[in-house]
Write a structure and sequence with these properties.
Elements: E1 3-5, E2 16-19, H1 29-32, H2 49-53, H3 57-68, E3 71-76, E4 79-84, H4 87-96, E5 101-103, H5 107-113, H6 123-135, H7 139-142, H8 146-160, H9 167-184, H10 188-204, H11 217-242, H12 249-253, H13 262-293, H14 295-310
Parallel strand pairs: 1-5
Antiparallel strand pairs: 2-4, 3-4
Helix pairs in contact: 8-9, 9-10, 9-13, 10-11, 11-13, 13-14
The structure holds protoporphyrin IX containing FE and 2-acetamido-2-deoxy-beta-D-glucopyranose.
Protoporphyrin IX containing FE (HEM) binds at residues 7, 103, 118-119, 130, 133, 137, 272, 275-276, 279-280, 283.
């Protein structure tokens, strides 16, 4: 029995979604009699998508958890799925029985991020992408970016001066700027505004029902995604002409030996922005919260950073 799972990188929710191909667990003859977790599947096709996304998702999860416990079934974005939240269940899926599961996203999300992105691939192609991503983030590679990252941090802090802010939102802006820098290096400034505009539209429709007709959020997202790919194609062709060496992520993907197509590069660039943004912003938000609540820790961290500077 193949179960499919995804991790919702798009929200700081510590639930693992166990999606399942429509025909498998819910429909097939063999497994029809197997018990499913408690829960409800909602309306046909729409399922419980609106209950999840029309409010703060935490409300949905909290009420389900209260009613059904840490493992329940539901139906989101056209997919029947099982949600798990206990550490034991997560270990079961990710470690002890990981061979029974295959990482995947709902088809609509694959289309939005790009079918050839690292998350959706397996085997040799996956291993290659992993290598290409990793080599752009080893200390040796990011060394040259540190001072630019520091400027981004300083600029962000300055822009917060005297304002009431939503920390997570500000951290998302910050991580986006750092992501663009790590991906495009010096080129970033030229394309920043266009990339931002398109990415924000894409993000807005990311959790929408996948109905691709004009006017829907999904349609707008898909359009923005197309435009992103076009901007990337432009950056890529400009780089090809200059034949310069770049030590950023795009440079790694474009390495001659690797033979990735422009489409594969675009899917993976968009994929990495997506993987890096909310996750890192969420961690930064928690760090700020705990430092704010624990002045003694804040002091210890400040001292150790100052010592580093003096070294
Ligand atoms: C604290 C921040 C982060 C958290 C909590 C986080 C979490 C995760 C999780 C849970 C996965 C799925 C792993 C799996 O499927 O087994 C993942 C995959 C991935 N993340 Fe992150 N991530 C973070 C930051 C980043 C950053 C900054 C990048 C930018 C390079 C990144 C790039 C990726 C990539 C490329 C994958 C796919 C790996 C693969 O399929 O082999 N992540 N991340
Ligand atoms: C938006 O919807 C129209 C009508 O279904 C479709 O032709 C078009 O391709 C969609 N746009 C994108 C970018 O998918």
């Amino acid at each position: 029995m193949a179960l499919y799972f995804m991790i919702p990188l798009f929200a700081s929710i510590f639930f693992i979604f166990l999606f399942n191909s429509l025909l498998n667990l819910f429909k097939s003859k063999k497994s029809r009699d197997l018990p499913l977790p408690p829960g409800t599947l909602g309306w046909p096709y729409i399922g419980e998508t609106f209950q999840l996304y029309s409010q703060n998702p935490n409300v949905f999860f909290a009420s389900k958890q209260k009613r059904y416990g840490s493992i329940f079934k539901t139906h989101i974005l056209g997919c029947p799925c099982v949600m798990i939240s206990s550490p034991e269940a997560a270990k079961f899926v990710l470690v002890t029985k990981s061979h029974l599961f295959k990482p995947t996203f709902p088809a609509s999300k694959e289309r939005m991020l790009g079918k050839q992105a690292i998350f959706f691939s397996q085997g040799q192609y996956h291993a290659k992408l992993r290598k290409l991503v990793l080599r752009a983030f080893v200390p040796e590679a990011i060394k040259s970016f540190v001072s630019n990252i520091e400027s981004i941090a300083k600029d962000s802090l300055q822009s917060l001066e005297g304002r009431l802010i939503t920390t997570f939102q500000e951290m998302k802006t910050y991580t986006f700027n750092v992501a663009l820098l790590s991906i495009f290096g010096e080129d970033e400034v030229k394309y920043r505004e266009d990339l931002k505009r398109c990415y924000y539209i894409l993000e807005k429709g990311y959790n929408s029902m996948p109905i691709n007709i004009p006017g829907t959020l999904f349609n707008k997202s898909m359009k923005a995604r197309k435009e992103l790919a076009q901007i990337l194609a432009k950056i890529i062709s400009t780089r090809r002409e200059t034949k310069q060496e770049y030590n950023d992520l795009l440079g790694s993907f474009m390495g001659d030996k690797e033979g990735l197509t422009d489409e594969q590069i675009a899917d993976n660039i968009i994929g990495v922005i997506f993987a890096a943004r909310d996750t890192t912003a969420s961690v930064l938000t928690w760090i700020i919260k705990y430092l704010g609540e624990n002045p003694n820790v804040l002091q210890a961290v400040t001292v150790s950073l100052l010592l580093l500077l003096w070294d």
